[in-house]
């Protein structure tokens, strides 16, 4: 994608597992977590350069340091990531284009080696057994095919979303390549899309304490669903910010009463959540049609299609769940 450090075209994260993990010494943990806390609260970092003092370190702690502040400021929390949990970052594939193939379908999916500079791609088809060497070219080189690398797990997620939302259709390599090519730039080492809260510095990927979530394997969801199950069972959710429904003077004052119940439910499942709250607040017809627990369970599948294992999780619960609380 570029001559600089290259990132996953799908998630925007680094394409190897060479990620800094911080020290486990208590002094380092305290310092790093204080740095994360202050950043999240919008506070400036503490100035620990004066006289070499670190306010996050106990002055009576005689444990010799095995770390340096500069390194810790660019390292992840060892309680949140490990070498094993980062291995998925080196499981890399790509979508490429072979102009020498006859016919319309010239794009392909291929396994690759973890990203190094320069990149060397070996075309081992993810769907077929044939293989052949493939030269890599960056977007700065005109008139040469470009390969767009990504994590295998990210592609699995993309394919699963495609299958869930497009009636079991699979990702089309030709369409995927065309889209990524249209979003590429000569000046960037990732696509020109919003990757969310992922940090980069001017030279490429940046390891930022507090952003361990960006290197979490998206297919490793066991802990997430265990946590979700505990939350659902406890019912420990904040109160909903929804406004209290005002009582209309008459049914004639509510134009939505002229619509069928089926149409109201379809609208309620389609509009954004904030607009749904407004409709529930303004219309008793919408309010009544969206009171059932079954409606909110259906709404979850619309707003949170990535909760694929939710049904399996719910089957393990014996108590009735108030699904509307998930929107609080």
From TrEMBL:
User: Which stretches of sequence are listed as region Disordered?
Assistant: 36-75
Provide ranges: composition bias, Acidic residues: 55-64
**InterPro entries in alphabetical order:** F-box-like_dom_sf (IPR036047), F-box_dom (IPR001810)
SUPFAM superfamilies hit by this protein = F-box domain
User: Where would I find the F-box domain in this sequence?
Assistant: 259-299
Q: What is this protein called?
A: F-box domain-containing protein
- In its UniProt entry, the species of origin is given as Fusarium duplospermum
């Amino acid at each position: 994608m570029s001559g600089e450090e290259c990132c996953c075209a799908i998630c925007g994260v680094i394409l190897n597992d060479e990620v800094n993990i911080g020290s486990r010494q208590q002094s380092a943990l305290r310092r790093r977590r204080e740095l994360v806390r202050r950043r999240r609260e919008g506070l400036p970092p503490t100035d620990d350069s004066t006289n070499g003092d670190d306010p996050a370190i106990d002055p009576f702690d005689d444990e010799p340091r095995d770390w340096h502040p500069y390194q810790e400021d660019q390292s992840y929390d060892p309680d949140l990531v490990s070498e094993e949990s980062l291995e998925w970052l080196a499981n890399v594939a790509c979508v490429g284009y072979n102009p020498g193939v006859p016919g319309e379908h010239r794009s392909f999916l291929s396994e690759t080696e973890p990203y190094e500079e320069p990149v060397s791609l070996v075309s081992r088809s993810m769907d077929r057994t044939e293989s052949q060497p493939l030269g890599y070219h960056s977007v700065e080189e005109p008139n040469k095919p470009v390969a767009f690398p990504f994590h295998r797990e990210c592609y699995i997620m993309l394919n699963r979303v495609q299958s869930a939302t497009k009636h079991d259709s699979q990702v089309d390599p030709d369409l995927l390549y065309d889209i990524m090519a249209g979003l590429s730039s000569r000046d960037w080492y990732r696509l020109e899309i919003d990757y969310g809260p992922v940090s980069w510095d001017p030279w490429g990927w940046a390891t930022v304490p507090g952003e361990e979530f960006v290197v979490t394997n998206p297919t490793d969801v066991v802990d997430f669903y265990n946590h979700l199950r505990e939350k659902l069972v406890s019912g420990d959710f904040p109160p909903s910010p929804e406004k209290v429904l005002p009582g209309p003077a008459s049914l004639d004052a509510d134009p939505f009463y002229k619509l069928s119940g089926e149409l109201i439910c379809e609208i309620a499942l389609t509009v954004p959540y904030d607009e749904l709250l407004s409709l529930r607040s303004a219309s008793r017809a919408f309010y009544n049609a969206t009171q059932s627990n079954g409606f909110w369970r259906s709404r979850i599948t619309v707003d949170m299609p990535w909760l694929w294992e939710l049904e399996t999780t719910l089957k393990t619960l014996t108590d009735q769940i108030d699904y509307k609380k998930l929107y609080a």
